[in-house]
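Work Package 4 report. The design task specified in the project plan requires that, given a folded chain encoded as structure tokens, an amino acid be chosen for each position. We show below one input record used in the internal validation round.
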């Protein structure tokens, strides 16, 4: 029997507002514990929350960018539970009337476009953080994070494979970052993912019983945790058992999911409308204004990059994965770089050099126009592709322009026929055995000769001329 997985993701995204969702405290990350708190976010009695308009705007932006219907009337609700990091004893969230509903985003899997439904997006406040010291019989509570605005983005159970789940997360993250509403940092917890998973025999319509896996904090773990959980559930079913509805925790060290609590221990949150906040009414005019202000989003940009610059789908996809990468690309093209050449240098050498230093393109020491200038030197034949590699790395490391580096290091390509001929003659004279073998039919030895001459000429020989001269001389 073959099985199919059914997956729905609940993603929490921390919004990039300067202040918290219901008070004026800072949301800055990494400050001394409890220095960014006030009577509202530490849950003092008698205080009143006031909605941060920026958080509302960010949620609406996200809804519009994910094709949602924006509610002109929505409401906050209290989600009641007890935990030390939740001083009020309830979290202000949205329940039956969320700000956004019925959207979708598109992902590409194996070259096919697939729509993943967005059930809802709602706003809520984050909780604080409990800190447990090793060996101590006490815990600390840091409430700096209490009241930081979150969006919960809930997908339809439209995802079928771990790979699709990763693509969905990546696309969602790209959209959030394009919008500037969330930094998308999974390691730091500003983007968190809970996965709901069930399995069913292929062809069956009804969904199986799902388990929810929490604590997944990287793209790699989305894939690993889902793969593990799908295998586990299939095994349970094949052995005649039943998957039980429960919450499981992903343990990244062990590479497994473990039961955390069953349905019986599930919370009854006793949701009810938040009496301290008026319902949210949003004018259609404002929604339209926000819509008009949206940036060009990844899907549209990708299609434009493919058509406008004639780039392969693969290049267009990679270059538009981050707005900053796309901007760098466009600036280099605008400065005169041929699009495919710019793309190749960016996806190859530039990304490699940035990765080596763990840098993002925002921190790139190289200006887009510098790449364009270097490409011009290649087009003019001043430097060969091989020399360009050295020049590029030098530009990156020193910040100097290509022309200056070429001059300084004497890297100008040698296109002087006489000079190349001389070097070729010397190499031929020094390697009689190889010449013999080449003439005897071992044509792949040409590469050896090219290498020897290049070495003698410090990599500066014009490659086309070198090839021609070598072939001519070797057939004499
Ligand atoms: P809860 O209130 O328990 O979080 P929801 O109905 O809001 O439950 O669903 C949460 C997530 O679970 C959604 O992303 C949804 O797509 C997904 N989901 C629902 N049913 C299933 C199922 N049978 N298998 C896998 N995922 C599911
Ligand atoms: Mg849930
Ligand atoms: Zn506060």
């Amino acid at each position: 029997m073959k099985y199919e997985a059914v997956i729905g993701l609940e993603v929490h995204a921390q919004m990039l507002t300067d202040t918290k969702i219901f008070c004026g405290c800072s949301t800055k990350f990494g400050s001394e514990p409890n220095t960014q708190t006030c009577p509202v976010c530490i849950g003092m009695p008698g205080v009143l929350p006031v909605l941060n308009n920026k958080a509302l705007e960010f949620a609406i932006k996200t809804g519009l960018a994910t094709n949602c219907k924006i509610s002109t009337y929505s409401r906050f609700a209290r989600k009641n539970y007890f935990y030390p990091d939740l001083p009020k004893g309830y979290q202000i969230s949205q329940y039956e009337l969320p700000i956004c509903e019925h959207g979708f985003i598109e992902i590409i899997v194996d070259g096919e476009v697939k729509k993943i439904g967005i059930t809802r997006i709602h706003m809520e406040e984050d909780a604080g953080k409990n800190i447990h010291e090793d060996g101590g019989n006490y815990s600390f509570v840091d409430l700096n994070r209490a009241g930081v605005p979150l969006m919960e983005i809930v997908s339809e159970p439209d995802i079928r494979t771990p790979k699709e789940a990763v693509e969905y997360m990546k696309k969602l993250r790209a959209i959030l970052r394009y919008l500037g509403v969330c930094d998308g940092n999974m390691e730091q917890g500003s983007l968190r993912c809970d996965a709901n998973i069930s399995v069913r025999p292929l062809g069956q319509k009804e969904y199986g019983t799902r388990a929810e896996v929490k604590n997944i904090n990287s793209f790699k773990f989305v894939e690993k945790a889902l793969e593990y959980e799908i295998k586990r559930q299939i095994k349970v079913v094949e052995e005649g058992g039943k998957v039980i509805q429960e919450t499981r925790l992903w343990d990244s060290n062990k590479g497994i999911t473990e039961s955390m609590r069953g349905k019986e221990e599930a919370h009854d949150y006793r949701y009810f409308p938040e009496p301290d906040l008026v319902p949210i009414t949003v004018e259609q005019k404002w929604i339209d204004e926000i819509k008009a202000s949206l940036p060009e989003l990844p899907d549209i940009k990708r299609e434009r990059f493919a058509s406008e610059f004639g780039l392969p789908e693969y290049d267009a996809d990679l270059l538009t994965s981050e707005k900053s990468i796309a901007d760098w690309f466009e600036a280099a093209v605008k400065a005169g770089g041929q699009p495919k050449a710019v793309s190749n240098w960016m996806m190859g050498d530039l990304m490699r050099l940035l990765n080596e230093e763990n840098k993002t393109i925002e921190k790139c020491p190289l200006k887009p126009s510098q790449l364009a200038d270097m490409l011009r030197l290649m087009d003019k034949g001043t430097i060969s592709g091989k020399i360009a590699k050295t020049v590029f790395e030098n530009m990156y490391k020193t910040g100097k322009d290509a022309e200056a580096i070429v001059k300084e290091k004497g890297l100008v390509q040698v296109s002087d026929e006489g000079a190349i001929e001389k070097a070729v003659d010397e190499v031929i004279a020094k390697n009689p055995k190889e010449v013999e073998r080449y003439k005897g039919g071992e044509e792949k030895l040409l590469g050896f000769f090219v290498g020897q001459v290049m070495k003698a000429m410090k990599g500066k020989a014009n490659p086309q001329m070198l090839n021609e001269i070598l072939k001519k001389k070797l057939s004499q």
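The chain has 15 helices and 16 strands. Validation will be extended to a larger panel in the next phase.
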